[in-house]
From TrEMBL:
Any one Gene Ontology molecular-function term assigned to this protein's record: mRNA binding
Keyword Repeat: yes
GO cellular component, one term: mitochondrion
Keyword Repeat: yes
Gene3D superfamilies recorded: Tetratricopeptide repeat domain
Listed name of the protein: Pentacotripeptide-repeat region of PRORP domain-containing protein
Cited PANTHER family: OS01G0301000 PROTEIN (PTHR45717:SF8), OS12G0527900 PROTEIN (PTHR45717)
One Pfam family linked to the record: PPR_3
PPR repeat start-end pairs: 88-122, 123-157
Species in which this protein is naturally found: Salix viminalis
Family to which this protein belongs: Belongs to the PPR family. P subfamily.
Keywords tagged on the record: Repeat
Length: 405
């Protein structure tokens, strides 16, 4: 009876056990979410609860948890206490990952050799861990040999493998090597069976990232010609060009100060996009302002307001808000002041208020626009009060000219 009462007696006990069982499922099924939200201590508590009740514990996950919370020595001790059957490819792989994360190269290489002897190198993960280790240790020249060993063992490179391999060539300024890896990745993509559409779509999404990396790499050497060549290749290899690809290219052209090419690229995207992404407009606006193209920036700005159907810039759909840099705002207000465009300045202030960025500096710039236009605003003092803006001496001087008492 007593034992039964522990489990079933009382709503609090049953609720507690229920929550623990739910937590177990969360740990096993949504480990990525636990790591994302930093709930590692709670995950360890659940694992210990599972152990006390003689339940099957996912040892590889638990080992990784221990290493992150209690240190590598505790993780090694946990691994050593496992039974021979539990010291399988998963737990060996988890320990290898821990060694690589802690940059313990000697132990990592020794364990990798042991895994090879035990025929545990059946997928790309152990190889990827070693590649990450060498990259973090500043040894990119060691990655091609690891890839070659993978192939000799009949292990197919995954997307992560290809990306790390390209990065290693990039670190060595071996652009031809990067292109060779990209070509091989393309051939691998073409070998995927047509009937396996889900896998194909997933691989294609990752495949785009290879082009993004190559574009960024050539931008780092200020090679605009190669940037444009890779961009053309990207567009020709896919039926549609995503917002992310356009964003990568716009950032690159902005970095290379090719404002003409940037505006051409932006207009190409704008004419064909299915969902308007304010991040792309931000890049174009900022580039225009940096090159004193204020009228062009204002046109993009006004069009963005229309395309996003309101002042919030579709932030609910995009789950991001527009966060303009101070220099961008100052440049816009300077343009409105020069043009005596009070309506434009007011539109910008409404947007800033909507995203909680309307401050005394914005009002300072707004008042200067009113003064430049020779206009009064009798309600301005009331607006400042309602928005919680403290009136400093500089603002008071401006108010006297726009909203005299």
């Amino acid at each position: 009876m007593g034992g039964a009462a522990t489990v079933h007696g009382g709503r609090g006990g049953a609720s507690s056990v229920g929550k623990k069982e739910e937590a177990v499922q969360e740990v096993v099924g949504t480990w990525g979410e636990l790591r994302k939200y930093g709930r590692l201590d709670y995950a360890i508590e659940v694992m210990e609860w599972m152990q006390m009740r003689k339940m099957n514990v996912p040892h590889a996950i638990y080992l990784d948890l221990i290493a992150k919370n209690k240190g590598i020595t505790a993780a090694e001790n946990y691994f050593d206490d496992l039974s021979p059957s539990e010291q399988n490819h998963s737990t060996h792989g988890a320990l290898l990952s821990c060694y690589c994360r802690e940059l313990m190269s000697e132990k990592a290489l020794t364990l990798f050799e042991k895994m090879d002897e035990m025929k545990f190198l059946s997928n790309s993960l152990p190889f990827n861990n070693l590649m990450s280790l060498h990259m973090r240790l500043g040894q990119p020249e060691k990655l091609p040999a690891i890839v070659q060993e993978m192939k000799q063992k009949g292990v197919s490179p995954c997307t992560f493998t290809y990306n790390m391999w390209m990065q290693s060539h990039g670190c060595l300024n071996d652009f031809e090597g990067v292109e060779r890896v990209l070509d091989e990745m393309k051939m691998d993509e073409e070998q995927i069976e047509r009937g396996r559409e889900t896998k194909k779509k997933r691989r294609q999404g990752d495949y785009r990232e290879a082009y993004h990396f190559l574009i960024t790499l050539y931008a780092g050497t200020s090679n605009l010609g190669e940037v444009n060549r890779v961009w053309s290749s990207l567009k020709s290899n896919f039926q549609t060009t995503t917002n992310v690809s356009y964003l990568t290219m716009l950032h690159t052209l902005a970095k290379l100060k090719d404002v003409e090419g940037l505006l051409k690229c932006f207009k190409e995207w704008e004419s064909s996009c299915h969902s308007y992404d304010m991040r792309l407009a931000n890049v174009a606006i900022r580039a225009c302002l940096e090159h004193d193209l204020y009228e062009e920036a204002a046109l993009i700005f006004d069009d963005a307001l229309t395309r996003t159907k309101g002042l919030f810039f579709n932030a609910r759909e995009m789950e991001i808000e527009w966060q303009p840099e101070p220099k961008t705002l100052s440049a816009f207000f300077a343009y409105f002041e020069d043009e005596k465009d009070v309506d434009g300045a007011e539109r910008l202030c409404k947007i800033l208020k909507h995203i909680n960025r309307l401050d005394s500096n914005a009002y300072d710039l707004l008042l200067k626009t009113y003064i430049a236009a020779g206009k009064l605003a009798p309600e301005m003092r009331q607006r400042l009060e309602e928005d919680g803006i403290e009136i400093n001496p500089e603002l008071e001087n401006l108010l006297e000219r726009v909203c005299p008492k």
